């Protein structure tokens, strides 16, 4: 690996850049100037469906950013997913009795 552009001059075996970082955005973790990819959490559980029947409804799940990308690190992936739900669940029909016949 090499140091991120504009951050430092040399890469040492210990994973640190030899020169102090030139770019203030790179000054973190004791002068570690390498690219850092975005880090996200695991997905949360799916939400309840927005409808109980006669869908499709929508359910969502989310995850959080744990570490923002730095330098030329990979951008964060999507943080929310949506899926259809209860598409094949018919709503119950209320039974209404008629008048008594003769």
Verbal overview:
It is a single-pass type I membrane protein. This protein has 102 residues and is mainly β. It has 2 domains: 1-34, no CATH class; 35-86, Single Sheet (TSP-1 type 1 repeat). Helix content is 0%, strand content 17%. It has strands at 39-40, 57-62, 65-67, 80-85. The N and C termini lie far apart (92 Å).
Concise synopsis of the structure shown:
The chain has 102 residues and is mainly β. 0% of the residues lie in helices and 17% in strands.
Estimate nothing, just give the exact number of structural domains: 2
Please report which band the strand proportion falls in: under 5%, 5-15%, 15-25%, 25-35%, 35-45% or over 45%: 15-25%
The CATH class of the largest domain? Mainly Beta
Which sheet architecture does the biggest sheet show?
2 strands, antiparallel
pLDDT under 50 segments (min length 5)?
A: none
CATH architecture of the largest domain: Single Sheet
The shape is rod-shaped
For this structure, the CATH topology of the largest domain is: TSP-1 type 1 repeat
How many strands in all? 4
Order of adjacent strands in the largest pleated sheet: 1-3
Topology:
Elements lengths: L38 E2 L16 E6 L2 E3 L12 E6 L17
Antiparallel strand pairs: 1-3, 2-4
Keywords:
TSP-1 type 1 repeat, 102 residues, mainly beta, two-stranded antiparallel sheet
